[in-house]
Amino acid sequence: MSDLACSNEDIIGALDGLGPVTTGELAGMVDCSDGALEDSLDALVDAGVVETRVVDGCSRLWWRIPDDKEGVDTFRAELAERLRPLTDPEEIQSVAGKLLAERLDVDRALYLEVFPDEETLQVRDGYARDGLAEVETKHRFSDFGDHVGDRLRRGEPLVVDDVTAIEDQSDEQEAAYLAADIHAYLTVPLLKSGRLVGLFTLQQTTPREWSDTAVELTRETVESTWAAVERARAERELAETNSILRRLTDASQVFIDADVATLRERVVELAREVVDCPSTTLWRYDKAEGELRAVDSETDPEHTTPDRPSDQRSERAWAAFVSGEPAVESELDAPAGVPEDPSAEPIRSRLVVPLGRHGVLEVASTEPGRFDSGTLDLVETLAATIETAWDRASGEAALQRRNRELQELDELNTLIRRIDQSLVEADTVSAIDETVCERLAESERYLFAWVGGYDPEPPAVSPRAWAGVDSSAIEALTATTDPTADDRLGPGTPATDPFVTAVQSSEMQTVGDIATDVRATPWREAALERGARSCHCIPLVYEESAFGVLVVYAATPHRGDRDEQVLAELGGTIAHAIHAAEAAATRQGGSVVELTLRVTDAKAPLCRLSRETGCVIESDGVVVGDGAEPTVVFTASGVTREALMTAAESSLSVDSLRALAAGEGGTLCKAEIADDSLVTRLQSDSATVQSLTIDAGVATAVVTLPETAAVREYLDGLTATGLELELIARRTRERSPDTTQRLQTAFREQLTPRQQEVFALAYRCGFFESPRVQTGAELADALGIAQSTFNYHLRGAQRQLCAAVFDPAGAAQTDHHWQE
């Protein structure tokens, strides 16, 4: 049995004169397989030539419909067979029109689609006898009179044997028919769900009486044509959808693995392929400028007028970007004026979809209304794919950049640690300079380095150590005279020297690209010849003292600020090391170290007193007498005497607070401190408290030490006592004159504790002022002794100090009754 398709004529011939037969019986008559036969029979059923019914739940019977008038059934079968394999809607309409025209012998047979407004008609395709004039393709029912549209919308055919005999027809309408060579016509409407969707019209160049068969065949044809067209369109849309999905899938595969640069280059190209539009533009958001920029665009140059940037396009793109919603322009006006290329079509519709934080994608078409809901869904899907890919690529790029930066930072920190270790071993300024330059030049990160000293008059930097280059290269690398400055910047305007600027401003100067930075002009050629593309000029500053500048060179242009932060810290470390080395050198010449400390001790009596009263306490010293508790003399400002006395009475650590005198600077007081005094803890055999100020419970002390090497030991000792302290400043200054040192030594060694207490209290309380701030009687009363005893110890202390000045040799052998 043959697997070939069955001929409709064979099937109809076999069924003629027979009653109902099964598929198997009929297959034996026409030599055809059951499957192919049933396909042909189903088509004949659709055409109204054959009837069928199901028996026994699965078997089917087939029989021929009788009374085939004038070959209608044959026409139906042929129409079904001819239309079935066609996939092009226009070809379907053309074939149907030609078959009907030939069957009924008419001059024209046209299939027209009706727009959703049920007023506009569009001739899609059909048949016209050779030599006939072409008819307009687009019409409105109102062109033919209101009665035409009304009847067709009701599903009534229009049968006109002679157009000149139409009643209620204007002369213009009749003339229009005749001008198109139409003298008779038959129009059959097609309604679906109560709406007029299409019609078939037959036209004759001579008057003609239309038969019922013609009406019936036309009705059959319009139904079959519409069904075939809808099927073809559905298949075409399905094919287009599948093609779009394939293109979208292919594009997605590219986007999945693409980096940011590839996305920027290929988004427009791939989007145009997926959407199949003549013009596509990518607008990227510029974070630095805060605006959208059209960074890439593609337009079909042969068929489309270029879609040039305009304020309106920019505004529409910005609105879509800000709102996050797509924007559609369906009916754009054609541009005014004569087009550059008459054959190119202007943009008539445009769609803009957001790409998240990255920008927007714009697609444009020469067709008005091109972007329906289906196309919008497609473009939004594409945009979501692009946005996701861009987020991924940006995240990966950021992660790679972060990892690279962390690796570089780790390498830099390793280098810094090596330099720090070397600084510990370097004990002179020259050793420090040489060590730093050598470590930097040995590293893979930098090419060479040098350290220079600063001369303020005139401002200049002179190299004092270098590594990675020789002395002849250093001379060229530190040149500051630019012979072309007058030509480039104007007469008398030299290029800015980054080395000098770094020292003067105490801020790092970075020459990011030696090849282009104007500041590198004097030494650019020398640096580039040695492979350098960027450099950092690091000021060596410690406690407001400048020790020169460190300059390091790298082989690549500078990319970020991580180096700057770490290198700036390195500059401070080097400056501190130089300061320490210089301090060690000056220590041998009679210098002392002055430390400024900030102390937070919530338990210290004076700190609590300051915090509770809100006053500022200036310590005037500690007097250590015969008693176990030291006496502290201080001035309190910002508080009344009564408030101060009340706060002291409630303190368990402050005993016998007495207000000695009041003045513009505050209240002069003395008190015995039960716990360890902050002053006594700060002061040691080697340390002298120069000043102590307590404000809001926080103390700031200035302490001097005779030897720099003892500083760390001294600070560690203070920390061990429980003090929370911070080193604010450290500097080296000249030691006090020898006479002062001898007097201080004599005060400590030659005076008894009671003499020290009496003499110090007298000085602190203004006994030696003129006029006296405190009298001897008042001071004796403050000490709880008789005035005669006060005078006795005071004169003894004065005699011992005078002996230390006028008779140093005999001071140690003075009669001991003065020291009791």
List the helices and strands and how they pair.
Layout: H1 8-15, E1 21-22, H2 23-30, H3 34-46, E2 50-55, E3 59-64, H4 72-83, H5 89-104, E4 108-114, E5 120-128, E6 138-140, H6 146-153, E7 158-160, H7 171-179, E8 184-192, E9 195-204, H8 212-257, H9 260-275, E10 279-286, E11 291-299, H10 311-323, E12 327-329, E13 349-354, E14 359-365, H11 373-425, H12 429-442, E15 448-455, E16 460-467, H13 471-477, H14 485-489, H15 498-505, E17 509-511, H16 524-529, E18 534-542, E19 545-554, H17 562-587, E20 591-600, H18 605-613, E21 616-623, E22 631-637, H19 641-649, E23 654-663, E24 666-673, H20 678-682, E25 688-695, E26 698-705, H21 711-720, E27 724-734, H22 738-750, H23 753-764, H24 776-783, H25 787-806, H26 808-811
Antiparallel strand pairs: 1-3, 2-3, 4-5, 4-9, 5-6, 7-8, 8-9, 10-11, 10-14, 12-13, 13-14, 15-16, 15-19, 17-18, 18-19, 20-26, 20-27, 21-22, 21-25, 22-24, 23-24, 25-26
Helix pairs in contact: 3-4, 4-5, 4-8, 5-8, 8-9, 8-11, 9-11, 11-12, 11-17, 22-25, 23-25, 24-25
Describe the structure in your own words.
- It is a single chain.
- The longest helix has 53 residues, at 373-425.
- The protein has 820 residues and is an alpha+beta fold.
- It is elongated and about 160 Å long.
